[in-house]
């Protein structure tokens, strides 16, 4: 797709902040996480059956904390969930992205596991929001109230940020505060992608 940009990073790296900034500027966006949450609830019974655990459902919806506790501690469980969800996520993203692509304007798709799975590589360019591992660790511990071991475990489930850096088409640094990151994003849109005129 000519106008699609896939935005990725590591956990707590700043993907959602990037998406919020471009949304506020008027760009169209999609989020794999939002789509995944919708699909989790839509398929709550099937997911409970996969894990043979009815306690995962509360008021007809998946309890994401309970599910997270399972998949972050068991690679087989994580793979089971991904095998079930990822094809469904891709189907929804493709449907929505093809509609957006026809507008002939840049749009951004937040996709945490862009480099971890190969389903999207030929569909658009990748933008990596880059944050070094030690800063990721501090942010994740603070954001999710995790101890260092638990936070590291979650970071290490994804491809190392330095490996992602080698593979990305574009890189935006997110190494200090939100204000600086916002400036980096605006500079990137104006001078690298040159797409600011598309929303005027």
From TrEMBL:
One of its GO terms (biological process) is coenzyme A biosynthetic process. SUPFAM superfamilies: P-loop containing nucleoside triphosphate hydrolases. Its main location: cytoplasm. It is an enzyme of class 2 (transferase). ATP binds at residues 12-17. Its EC number is 2.7.1.24. InterPro entries: Depp_CoAkinase, P-loop_NTPase. It catalyses: 3'-dephospho-CoA + ATP = ADP + CoA + H(+). One of its GO terms (cellular component) is cytoplasm. Keywords: ATP-binding, Coenzyme A biosynthesis, Cytoplasm, Kinase, Nucleotide-binding, Transferase. It is found in: Cytoplasm. The keyword tRNA processing does not apply. Pfam families: CoaE (PF01121). Pathway: Cofactor biosynthesis; coenzyme A biosynthesis; CoA from (R)-pantothenate: step 5/5. One of its GO terms (molecular function) is ATP binding. NCBIfam families: dephospho-CoA kinase (TIGR00152). Belongs to the CoaE family. Catalyzes the phosphorylation of the 3'-hydroxyl group of dephosphocoenzyme A to form coenzyme A. This is Dephospho-CoA kinase. It comes from Campylobacter lari. The lineage of its organism: Bacteria, Pseudomonadati, Campylobacterota, Epsilonproteobacteria, Campylobacterales. The gene is coaE.
